[in-house]
Every structure is written in C-alpha cells, then in structure tokens.
Amino acid sequence: MLATSTQDLYSFFHLRILQQLVAKDRPRNLPFVTKSDAMISLDLVLNFPEPIFWLGYLSTCLCLTVVTVHLYLERPSPHASRSVPAEDDHEMGASSSEQTDVAIVGGNAMGLMTALFCEQACLTGTRITVFEREIEPKQSVGESGLSTLSRAMQSIGLDLAIQSSLFNLKSGLAFYHADDPSMHIEVTNLDYSFQFDRRTLSLLLQSLCRRRGVQINNGCHAEAIRPSDKAASDSMLHEDNMCRVRVKDRKNAKESIIYARVIIDASGARSQLVSKARFAYFNCNAVWTYYRSPQVLPNELQRFEQPTTKHISFREGWMWIIRLIDWSSTPTHLLQAYIEDIFDRQAQGRPLLSIDAAAEVFGLTYEYQFSVGFVIREDMDEKPSTGSSNEHSFRHWIEKYELVSRTLAPYTRVEGSSVHRRVAPAHYNTTPVRDGLTCVGDSVAFSNPFLSRGLNIGVVGCLTAAYAVAEGLARHSMKFVSDPTPRQIQLLDFMKQIPPMLGEDYRVWHSTFASREAYERVLLPYLMAGVGHLGQYRNAVESSSEVTFNLDEELFAYGLLLPFVKPMFTVASQLMIGYSASDNEGRMRVDAEIKKLSAGFIADLRCTFGKQPYSLFVPGYDDDLNRVGLEAYQTFVDEHSKKIGCFKSFFRCQDCKNWTAELLKHCSKCTLNE
C-alpha cells in the first residue's frame, strides 16, 4: 500500500525508529531500517513530488542521526557506574520462558569473572544472566590470590585501591620444610596480589556485574536440560540451536525454562553436568580453622611478619598460613553499602575511604585473622579412630612436627572457630567443553591448592571461555566441538591441557615433600619459570589503570604449560617413587639425580628467557638459584632494583603496622584519604 501524504511518510519512519529505540531485546546487528522496510520506503518516496520527497528525506535523516547519537551515548560502558539495587534483578516466573544470550550457572567468583569478561568481549547489548543457588554469598575458606587474579581484576576496573579497601595485600609466597627449618624459599616483589575472602569477593563482583548490565539471579537452582535425542556427552544444543536451562527459584519455588545461545557452567564439583574423575596416584584431605596473630612475634618468627602466604611442607603434606581481612561479623547489607560507596567514589573521581573510616561510617566490623590448614595425602593421613573429630586431626598435625607447633605457638585460636574438613576434593571433568556449553573454574578441575591453582588458573580459563563465547555469538556458532571457531579451538586446547598438567602438578609436589633437597631443587626453578614467562621483571612499576589482562600472555599460567615443565615433573615424580630418608645410599642417589634434573631445567629457562635476575625475587639465592644468604641478597637489591625499575615495593604503616602497596602512597587501613 502506497502512502498518500507527507504525514504518512513521517509516521512510517518515526514509528520504525521508535520501535527500534524502545525494543529491549533489539538484536545488536539489526539495522534501524530493515531490508523490507527499505523496499516499502522506496515505493513511498517514488510517489511523492520532488520538494516533498527531499523534505521527508532530510527530516528522516535528521531523526535517524539524533537517535543513533542517543543510542551511542546511552550504550553500556565497560566502566560505567550506575545505581542499582542490591536485591536480585527479578524473580523468576512460574511458567515463563525467557531468553538470554549467555546463561552462567554459578554465581561464585569464577562465574562472575566470566560474566564480566563476556561483557567486555561481546558486542554491546549481549544479554548475560547469572544463576546462583545461594540467596547471598556465604563465608568460606580464604583464597590466596596471585598477581594473575589481581591483574585480571584490575583489567575490569577493580584497581589496587579498591582491592586494598577489602582484602589483605600480599607480597608473594614463602616456603619452608619441616625437616630443615633453615631452608626458606620466598618468592616476592613480583607484583601486587591479595588474600581473598570469598564472601566479600563475590559481593564485590556481583555489584560490578549489576553496574555493567549483567542480570544476577540469586537463590536460583539452575541446571542445563540435555536434548532428549543426544547422549550425555554430546551437544547441549537443541534442534533450534538454542540451549535450555531449568531454573527453580528457591524463594518462591517457581520454575522457569531459560532459552540461551550458550551455557557456561561455573557451579563447581556439584554440577549436574560434570563427569568427575579422580586424578591418578592419590587424593588429599584438608582440615582448617582460624587464628589471631600476637602483638609481637618472637625473633625466630620475624620473617612471618612479611606479607606472604606461608607454606610448611612435610612428608605427608603441607600446611598453609594465610592472613585475611575477616568481614564475617558484618551483615551483608552493610558490607554491600560499603562496596556501593567504593564504586560511587570511583565513578565520581573521589578518593576512597580508609578501611577504618568506612567501618565507622557504615557500621562495619572486621579484624585481621589467619586461615590455618593442613592438606594431607589420603594414603598417608592418620586413620581417625571411632568418635575422633576434625579437631583431633588438626591437633595431630600440629603436634607431629616441631616446626609447625613452634610456628603456631604464639598464635591464638579465634573464639568459637570450629575445624572444617574436606575429604578427597581433587577431581577433573572428562568433558569440560561440549557444543553449546563450556565449563570454567572448579567445574573443569580442582587439584592440590599448594600453589593457589584454583582462582589463579581458573581466571585464565574464564577469559579463554569469554573470548570463545564472544566469537561464537558474532559468528552465530556455538559448536565448540563439532565446528569450532579459532578462539573455540583455543578453548578446547586449554581444557585439554590443563587437567593432566594439574594432575602432574598435584603429584610432583607431594612426591618431593619427602626430600628437602628434591623439594628445593624442583620448586625453585619451576617458580622462576613463571617469573620468566610472565615477564614481571621487564615492566617498570605502572599505574593500575594501565594494567591489562592479555590472554595470549596469561595462557601459560605461571609456567604450567611451558613445554619443558611436564618432562621435569614426570621425571622428578618417578625418581621419588620408593624414596626413603633412612636409605642413605638411595637418598643420595635420588638427590643427585634431582639436582642434575634441576640444572637442566634452569638451562632450559635461560634458552627460553635469557639470563634473568632471579636473585631479585628470591631472597637468599643468586641468579643461578644457589643459596647465598640474605646479606648477599640485600646487597643485590640495593645495587640493582632501582636500575631495573621493577621492584614492587611495600611499606608498613608506622601507626597501624598494616602492609600497603607503595604505589598507593598511603595506608589503606588507617589513612582517611579525603
């Protein structure tokens, strides 16, 4: 039907523009005027006299320009800040069928980081929905972050000031051996990182997700619906090339079916889709509780004042000591208000409140505590007697080793803190990627947390998955396995390599714990492989706003996927089979072989990265990773650190004794930085 008046022409174009403007589910690539609209408009304009035609044409162009500029200005910004309620975005309907582009099952740190990476990687307007079973994040065991996680958080807008406002800063990792208290391996000054409280981390990431337009549904149990005509390990795509997620709202018991273009499973070991398998060799059990530090540590423990994650290893396993800021006594709504204030101040360019000032303003309660725990080989764990408790098991390992008992003697248990236990948690997923679905975090694998593998390698997997999803959405292909795009091939390779390497990583450390010599000779060069690959020493201290998280640089995740790492792990583990400290001849032979293996590994490091100033990052060792003592180390630091321009410095506040990054130039705990 042809138009007969100027009003008809205006009405047609204005109606189409208005429809595009208000459509909440407007596909990102849909033009303002479709092909069919263009054909109709051609018929319209051909039937108008020339003056009226040009009047209508110019009016329409002006209107289109205004709307386009409006939509551009209103687009979600990667660092946009807008006020949002702390409550869930909406309740799920009783019989509703909703659609989203990306459905993430699991609102833990890995699920939320994946959502934020997807928001950055995908085209503007991509609908991202997170389903979390818990109504609000729960208190859990602390997590030792490495610089990988800290850089990832900075890359999404959570700068050092924000992280320092909620979490305890750390300068590196420290390792001891119960058989030789003089052995002290401390890897430090690489980059800034933090000890994370999982509840607070989840609240922080949830708030940021909401501000970026990610829909968060707390209190919702979600599970993917397999196509009825496909095997359990096959595609999750149904006949319409969409996935299905069944969601049950725990608050009102209502159920919904969510249609999604792709599912990301971040629900961990409890996932209904995880085909769990145990790593070969052995598993481990863990027990832990919480302590407070004394006002003054004895002289022999002065090194424990350094802000590092402490590890004490022994034949059966290892012990961790992690200093945390504990917010568990603060109600969620108050902690949430503080987090929103942090984001508001960041958006307004205002300085953040110190932790002490925020505690007074928002009525927060916090204290510094130590998470202390043991990870014990399952085949060497003391068999608990009938009626024995987690407390009994915890005390057993304290009393068995003098270095452990002497270390914990000045510390006091937090009143009312019970001993928690996890039995044989290590596992891996045999099918972490399928058409229409990929896993991230513990849904892929969970292994020995000796080197903080969980969040730190997990976040690399999150970014890998986000890139694969973004490319799949752009190319309309979520066939990760049957017809993958280049980024999806990268995801498949990552998921294929990581679980077996985590298994080797799991085995080698627990094997070398039996020998102090083997432990030192394998651990040191491996840690330096991570230093060499990530290239921390090459970068001058930068402002947090310049930090990027580049997938191609981070994929090696502290050297775990370097080609010469696996052979060393395999040979070292084999050499330790049947190792006995009481067999002097056999012990000396194994230690000599391990030393030769270590020297070859160091040579591989030099071939790959050149000769590097490793002594700068390992107090008491030279560039060849031989012990030289702390005095020689300090001399090297004084002479070379400023020249290299890479020494990540920390200072201790004279008033509150809190450790702070020198980059911040003020104490994040007690200084009111207004």
Question: Which architecture name of the domain at 92-142 and 198-277 and 427-506 does CATH use?
Answer: 3-Layer(bba) Sandwich
Q: Characterize the main sheet.
A: 9 strands, mixed
Q: What quaternary form is this? A: single chain
Work out the strand percent: 15-25%
CATH topology of the domain at 92-142 and 198-277 and 427-506: the name is FAD/NAD(P)-binding domain
Overall pLDDT confidence: 80
User: How many helical stretches?
Assistant: 18
The rounded Rg comes to 28 Å
Strand runs, count? 22
Shape: globular
Class based on secondary structure composition and strand pairing:
alpha+beta
In CATH terms, the superfamily of the domain at 92-142 and 198-277 and 427-506 is FAD/NAD(P)-binding domain
| Relative helix content | 25-40%
Low-confidence parts, pLDDT < 50 over ≥5 residues? 1-49, 66-87, 536-545, 641-646
Would you state the CATH class of the domain at 92-142 and 198-277 and 427-506? Alpha Beta
Kindly report how far apart the N and C termini lie: 66 Å
